Amino acid sequence: xxxxxxxxxxxxxxxDPDTFYSALASDAADQLARYTAVRDRIVLDVGGxxxxxxxxxxxxxxxxxxxxPDPAELLSRGEPPDGSVLADGYWLPVRDGAADxxxxxxxxxxxxxxxxxxxxxxxxxxxxxxxxLSYTNWYSPWGGHEMSxxxxxxxxxxxxxxxxxxxxxxxxxxxxxxxxxxxxxxxRMVRARRDVEVLCARPRYYPDWCGAVLLLPGIREIxxxxxxxILRRTG
Length: 235
Ligand SMILES: C[S@@+](CC[C@H](N)C(=O)[O-])C[C@H]1O[C@@H](n2cnc3c(N)ncnc32)[C@H](O)[C@@H]1O
Description:
single chain; Rossmann fold; alpha/beta; 33% helix; binds S-adenosylmethionine; 235 residues
């Protein structure tokens, strides 16, 4: 039921982004609530865009701070949440271990150095704190974002096709604001870290029992759609 509802809202993402992104933020907070309470906790929303997640976490009583490098994204829904900071996720302006919880939703595929972003989120999180990380992997049916499904023919071909069809470049430009990030390498990277315990690794939008697809190299790159990782910083 939950997955079907999210998919229905996703189909209306272009015409009614507010409803879709608000529902997604609420769903993300529910997923995190299985692992930790958020009330009175310090939460960092990295690459928070217009602030859907920040608003949701604040509504649930968290002390949530939004960090977003792109002013256009920050202002895309009008007034951003109070205290939002223009800042890059690679260099968060917070001390080591400042956060109880560090969140980034659908940001990793928009950075050139995913490892750098993950390391910075871990630096900003206190030992024992959690990192909520989700991203659309490249070979997902939505991996090319608005260029999908033509990204399966290659990023450049998909970009050229989009330009021809729409008379303008896509918002998400391969090699500039959209990068191929896969499931296997990120899973291996986080599992290899001694300071990280992987509490949850699963396709974000599917029911719990679909987590088993992550055991299938190759297939997981296509069917996962969006990988959710909930990590505990252990050291
Ligand atoms: C698809 S939006 C997601 C926004 C928000 N997290 C949400 O779920 O509503 C991707 C966001 O990543 C941001 N972003 C891109 N590069 C970034 C970086 N180096 N550090 C932090 N955020 C970045 C973009 O500006 C954009 O706001």
